[in-house]
Design goal:
By secondary structure, the protein is mostly helical. It has 3 helices and no strands. It has 2 domains: about 45 residues; about 35 residues. Helix 2 runs antiparallel to helix 3. This is C-type cytochrome biogenesis protein CcmI. InterPro entries: Cyt_c_biogenesis_CcmI, SHOCT. It comes from Agromyces atrinae.
Amino acid sequence: MFQGFAGWHLIIVIGVLLLIVGIAAIIIYVVTRSRAVTDQTTSPQAMPQSIESRLAELESLRTRGVISDDEYARQRRVILGEI
Protein backbone atom coordinates (compact mmCIF):
# COMPACT_ATOMS: atom_id res chain seq x y z
CA MET A 1 0.00 0.00 0.00
CA PHE A 2 2.49 2.71 1.21
CA GLN A 3 5.96 1.35 0.34
CA GLY A 4 6.32 -1.44 2.83
CA PHE A 5 3.31 -0.63 5.01
CA ALA A 6 0.76 -3.35 5.02
CA GLY A 7 -2.84 -2.44 5.75
CA TRP A 8 -2.62 -3.33 9.41
CA HIS A 9 0.47 -1.15 9.89
CA LEU A 10 -1.48 1.84 8.64
CA ILE A 11 -4.34 1.04 11.01
CA ILE A 12 -1.90 0.91 13.95
CA VAL A 13 -0.31 4.25 12.98
CA ILE A 14 -3.71 5.92 12.64
CA GLY A 15 -4.81 4.44 15.97
CA VAL A 16 -1.71 5.77 17.75
CA LEU A 17 -2.22 9.22 16.19
CA LEU A 18 -5.87 9.25 17.31
CA LEU A 19 -4.80 8.21 20.79
CA ILE A 20 -2.30 11.09 20.97
CA VAL A 21 -4.93 13.56 19.76
CA GLY A 22 -7.42 12.21 22.31
CA ILE A 23 -4.97 12.56 25.18
CA ALA A 24 -4.14 16.12 24.08
CA ALA A 25 -7.86 16.98 23.96
CA ILE A 26 -8.37 15.62 27.49
CA ILE A 27 -5.41 17.64 28.80
CA ILE A 28 -6.72 20.82 27.15
CA TYR A 29 -10.19 20.21 28.59
CA VAL A 30 -8.88 19.64 32.12
CA VAL A 31 -6.64 22.73 32.02
CA THR A 32 -9.39 25.03 30.72
CA ARG A 33 -11.88 23.59 33.21
CA SER A 34 -9.53 24.16 36.15
CA ARG A 35 -8.90 27.74 35.00
CA ALA A 36 -12.66 28.39 34.86
CA VAL A 37 -13.11 27.06 38.40
CA THR A 38 -10.17 29.16 39.62
CA ASP A 39 -11.62 32.27 37.97
CA GLN A 40 -14.96 31.69 39.69
CA THR A 41 -13.40 31.27 43.12
CA THR A 42 -11.18 34.35 42.79
CA SER A 43 -13.90 36.62 41.42
CA PRO A 44 -15.12 39.42 43.67
CA GLN A 45 -17.79 38.46 46.15
CA ALA A 46 -21.39 39.38 45.52
CA MET A 47 -22.49 42.79 46.69
CA PRO A 48 -23.44 42.75 50.36
CA GLN A 49 -27.12 42.77 51.11
CA SER A 50 -28.72 45.98 52.28
CA ILE A 51 -29.67 46.40 55.93
CA GLU A 52 -33.34 46.31 54.94
CA SER A 53 -33.05 43.03 53.07
CA ARG A 54 -31.06 41.43 55.88
CA LEU A 55 -33.66 42.50 58.43
CA ALA A 56 -36.46 41.21 56.19
CA GLU A 57 -34.70 37.85 55.86
CA LEU A 58 -34.19 37.74 59.61
CA GLU A 59 -37.90 38.45 60.18
CA SER A 60 -38.79 35.72 57.69
CA LEU A 61 -36.62 33.21 59.55
CA ARG A 62 -38.33 34.11 62.84
CA THR A 63 -41.87 33.87 61.45
CA ARG A 64 -41.10 30.47 59.92
CA GLY A 65 -39.77 29.27 63.25
CA VAL A 66 -36.25 28.68 61.99
CA ILE A 67 -34.75 30.91 64.69
CA SER A 68 -36.01 31.77 68.17
CA ASP A 69 -37.06 35.22 69.36
CA ASP A 70 -33.81 35.52 71.32
CA GLU A 71 -31.72 34.67 68.25
CA TYR A 72 -33.77 37.15 66.24
CA ALA A 73 -33.21 39.96 68.77
CA ARG A 74 -29.49 39.20 69.04
CA GLN A 75 -28.92 39.15 65.29
CA ARG A 76 -31.09 42.25 64.78
CA ARG A 77 -28.86 44.17 67.21
CA VAL A 78 -25.79 43.02 65.28
CA ILE A 79 -27.26 44.17 61.95
CA LEU A 80 -28.42 47.50 63.34
CA GLY A 81 -25.02 47.98 64.97
CA GLU A 82 -23.45 48.06 61.51
CA ILE A 83 -25.24 51.31 60.65
